[in-house]
Amino acid sequence: MKGFTKAKHLIFFGLILILAAFTVANAAEPVVTTAWVEKNLNNPDVVLVDVRKVEDYKAGHIPGSVNVFYGSWAITKGGLRNELPALDDLFDIIGSAGITPEKHVVVVGPVEPPPSRFDITRVVWTLKYAGVKNVSILDGGYNKWVADKKQVSTDTVKPKASSYKAAVKENLIVNKSYVMSRLGKAILVDVREPDFFQGKKKLDFVAKLGHIKGAVNLPNSLIFNKDGTFKTKQELDKAATDVIGKDKTKEIITYCDTGKTCTAWAFILSDILGYSDVKIYDGSTEEWTKDPNAPFEP
Amino acid sequence: MYRAFLVDKDIIKNDIHFSEGCTSCHKGNPKAWDRKIAHKGLVSRPSKSLSTCETCHEDVVKKFKNSLHFTTAGQREGVKGRFSAQELKVFDNKVFEASCRSCHASCGDCHVSSPPIGGVKMGLIKGHRFVKRDEGKTCGLCHGGRVYPEFTGEYGGSADIHYQKGMICVDCHKKKELHGDGVLYKSMKEIKDRPRCINCHKIGENDSEKAMEAHMMHKDTLSCYACHSSSPYRNCYNCHLGKGAESKPGFFLGVNPRDKKTFTTLRLIPTVRKTFKSAGIEMEHYDRLPNYWDTAPHNIRKRTDRTRSCDACHKERRDYLTSDIIIKDGSKANVEIIFKKNK
After folding, report:
1. A128, A217, B25, B301: least buried by Cβ within 10 Å?
2. Class at the top of the CATH hierarchy for domain A27-147
């Protein structure tokens, strides 16, 4: 009887190991190379989503990639830039690109001019929010694909649309009242450049100079190499831990001016560096500074 | 020399337009070494005279000569109802040619080099290539105030669903419309074969039960835009000749001034009482035409506030043009297009 129980335990742990191995095999790399994409061009489980403008896509794109340009994923709503579309619209957008929750989506975008790099990370974060399990970024974007002299197509891809439905990960994108409730508890990460964080500069549509009370500064300029590829994991890890520490279980909320560029560090912290509780504040300073009761400091 | 004006050798080698050399279009003296002598008689915008292109593209130019893109007759037609016969003569002589017509497109403005917009010239479209089309530049530059940024979502709100699905200008606006069909039209409203939503979206096809009911109920009284235009579009205010206008986003629903049985999206057109005063035109009949006109905002979505909730119109009257919000000192004709509670 004792021997039988031992055998049962062995089988159980064996199954766990197999399951774990399967899970690892299924987990997509958060950042993939042009070589990886080239190898997977005909992989039916991979959907390449090109978020560049329609005209740019038509002029040339990665063979098989579908075009859903950035403005589809982030809209102006309630006077705020870069907001989520309504959920039914968002699901339509995802479904019409032929994406299902199980597909591995690789987001391809422009990396020049540099601000467009954040189009890519905002779309990635939106897909994660919408319940897509495996989402990656093509390192260096379409520019790297061209620079690496990979094959380019001008044939527009019409994906087979699906009816997309999934459980939304609401906790990835939070609103003002949530941030207010977490002041002094979560780590608030301001990803704007130091002059903006320190209150020396601001964008026209942001009402006040400074940053949300208690925030720390981890600027976006630490993320990319000159060619728009990501810096190494070690470099990113050092930049992050210098500012927010090594405890990867702490709640982190990133913000910027409109909820777009803060998705880059959010993506790096959660998907590359393994921080387990990362959120973005969608309204960011554009919304926060309009509220006279929202604590903001120079 | 500006880099944008350097012509790549490969373009010259591979494009038949260069087979006769630069001077076949730009004139000047190719043998001269002195800049002044070489540039004597230089034509900087060769297609300003359509005869340059007509030599080879006779059929296209023959039609294009009468097209609204070239004649800009629509601008004259839009305002002439405000003038007396005498004022119209002054307008034609003093204003139309000097101001409105200066905006007309010639062949090169779409196929080679962007036209000056508000005094700013963006340069060659793609080196000195003769591009068949490049909508973001060829259409987007002239129509970059209203149509194009609304279409791509850059003006705010959401991008037009057609752009999101990969459609660009020429997918609806065909060559016949852009180059003209040879008929001398007074305005685009006279052209029968224009893009219409119903050409692709027949009522009842692919409609849900709810959509079908809404479409059947409203099809004779509402334009498609009234429900499916998704967000505020650009409205221009206070046009004074030579001084330009100012713009801001707005969304207005009211009676279609061209078809008073229907309700549609209206856009403020910036002609004010003093617009042509400096040309000596008082606009005797200013009050005959309204300041708001039916418009087709290029920001269409399947779902909008009005498709999501009947209450947006039927209870809240949201975005209705009312006497409270029409422009001050506007045309008396505006009263015909505002929403009246007994309607």
Report:
1. A217
2. alpha beta
Chain B residues touching residue A86 (CB < 8 angstroms): 303
Give A-chain residues touching B138 at CB under 8 angstroms: none
Question: Nearest by CB to A72, which of B159, B168, B231?
Answer: B159
- The Cα–Cα gap between A262 and A74 comes to 14
Question: Cα(first)–Cα(last) distance of chain A, in Å?
Answer: 71
**Distance, first Cα to last Cα, chain B:** 64
ipTM of the predicted structure?
Answer: 0.85
Structure confidence at residue A211 (pLDDT): 98
Cα(B197)–Cα(B116) distance, integer angstroms: 32
Residues of chain A with CATH 3.40.250.10: 27-147, 170-297
The C-alpha angle B335, B192, B89, rounded to 5 degrees, equals: 60
User: Pick from B239, B238, B235: which is nearest to B247 by CA?
Assistant: B235
CA count, 13 A, side-chain hemisphere, B297:
35
Within 8 A by CB and 6+ apart from B52, the residues are B25, B43, B46, B107
CB contact under 8 A, B303 and A67: no
Quick check: B277 and B267 in contact, CB under 8 A? no
* Nearest of B161, B157, B160, B109 to residue B137 by alpha carbon: B109
Q: From A84, A295, A116, select the one nearest A188 (Cα to Cα).
A: A295
Q: What is the pLDDT of residues A38-56, one digit of tens each?
A: 999 999 999 999 999 999 9
Q: What is the CATH number of domain A170-297?
A: 3.40.250.10
